[in-house]
Amino acid sequence: MRRTHTDRTLITIAIVGALLAGSPARAAAQQAKPDSQTSADISREIRDALRTAGRDVGEAIREVSRELSREFGHGGEQNDRNWNGRAEDRQTHALAIGLNGSIELRNLSGDVTVTAGNGRDASIEVIRRSRGRTDADARLGLERVKVDQQVAGTRAAIKTDYANDRQSAYNVSVEMIVTAPVGTRVLINSVSANVKVTGIHGELAVKTISGDVTLANVGVVTDAKTASGNVTITGAAGDGTLEVEAISGDLTLKQVKARSIKANTVSGNISASDITCETATFNALSGDASFAGDVAKNGRYEITSHSGDVHFTPTGPAGYSLSASSFGGDIHPPAGFQPDATGSKRRRTVSGKVGDGSAVVNLQTFSGDVTVGPRK
Q1: What is the spatial distance between Cα 124 and Cα 94, in angstroms, rounded to a whole number?
Q2: Closest C-alpha to 223, from 205, 237, 211, 199
């Protein structure tokens, strides 16, 4: 049975998840023996393990990309560099979905841009660019690679259909540029694409394997995920759970409101500022992790890094209980901190509370520093 590129996307995510679940970095962290190893030794082991994990994940993604190229009849990067044939087609279509409709975009290769417009309905510009050994081969690519458009009531589905030519002499990318009403619900799935969404306040979910995800002035975001690339969210407001993930890339969140935020990156930093949420779970395997924002009464905030610094800057009147630990770094508690315990020689741990201690804050790193409060 032929698999679609979305199936391949899910397979890739499963591969990455399996690799991370049993990653050598996690094993090194769990098996570290403070009695026989210095913090510097453990830090080196963790960094080496992270590099190995990164290579494993990168190879898994590359293998899926190679299989996609074979399955969908692309000539491949090596041949593509020597191809001189060119062909291009641009078409614009109206999507009569109303002010609060939904759009689903599925693509294999090509950037996706969605911008809020003032009209009642949406429109999409589809740009197909083909390269081939000759101009005739490139034109054949445009004939074989189509964009399927289906509109039913307030729902539109746009999907790129690649012909299954095993030995094709063309390579086609499809760029999608969408203008939609502010309240549109948008779902985007792609393999190789930079995705940018601006001004959409309907529910939004974005997943890509290779490329950056950039969201600005949006509403409810449920997913913003990439395997290889950065995720940047500037201005988002929702009352549900926001999941932000990258395998190799930085996660940057500014002026984001959600009930719960989950952010995970393997090789990159997590930077979150002007955040409002009841719960936050950040995990940067190889990089720094920082949170700055309001602490909710009875909220819970867990920020973890294996080989980077952790920085927590709480705002608002709510108090919190604090547990902070670092094997090889320093811990800098905030002003007004009331300690109730100290760590052992094996591992530096500080615990106590600020104010009424109603919220729970757990901060952990192996080889970095933990800082609570404004940066000095």
Answers
A1: 7
A2: 205
DSSP string, 311-374: EEEEESS--EEEEEEESSS-EEPPTT-EEEEE--SSSEEEEEEETT--EEEEEEESSS-EEESS
Residue 115, token pair as written in the block? 């911008």
For residue 42, give the amino acid letter.
I
The Cα-based distances of 340 to 337, 353, 361 in angstroms read 10, 8, 15
Over residues 230-247, mean pLDDT: 96
Least Cα distance to 366 among 19, 47, 21 occurs for: 47
- Residue of 280, 276, 340 whose CA lies nearest to 310: 280
Structure confidence at residue 340 (pLDDT): 83
pLDDT at 4: 46
* C-alpha dihedral, 187 to 189 to 192 to 194, nearest 10°: 10
At 71, give phi and psi (nearest 5°). Answer: -70, -40
pLDDT at position 213 is: 97
Q: Which of 229, 257, 346, 367 is nearest to 304 (CA)?
A: 367
Q: What is the pLDDT of residues 315-337, one digit of tens each?
A: 988 899 999 999 888 999 988 88
Inter-CA distances, 360 with 270, 274, 333, 345, Å: 20, 19, 15, 25
Alpha-carbon gap, residue 144 to 139, rounded angstroms:
9
- 43 Cβ neighbours under 8 A, 6+ residues apart: 307, 328, 366, 367
Encode burial over 159-189: b for 16+ CB neighbours within 10 A, e otherwise.
Answer: bbbbeebeebbbbbbbbbbbbbbbbbbbbbb
- Which pair of structure tokens corresponds to residue 113? 């841009």
Q: Which amino acid is at 129?
A: R
Whole-prediction pTM = 0.83
At 249, give phi and psi (nearest 5°).
Answer: 165, 165
Cα distance between residue 178 and residue 162, in whole Å? 21
CA distances from 250 to 59, 88, 236, 276, 325 (A): 20, 34, 18, 20, 24
Alpha-carbon separation of residue 248 from 57, 110, 233 (angstroms):
9, 20, 17
* Torsion angles phi and psi, residue 168, rounded to 5: -75, 155
Query: C-alpha angle with apex 368: 277 to 253, nearest 5 degrees?
Result: 30
Cβ burial of 270 (10 Å; 0-12, 13-18, 19+) is buried
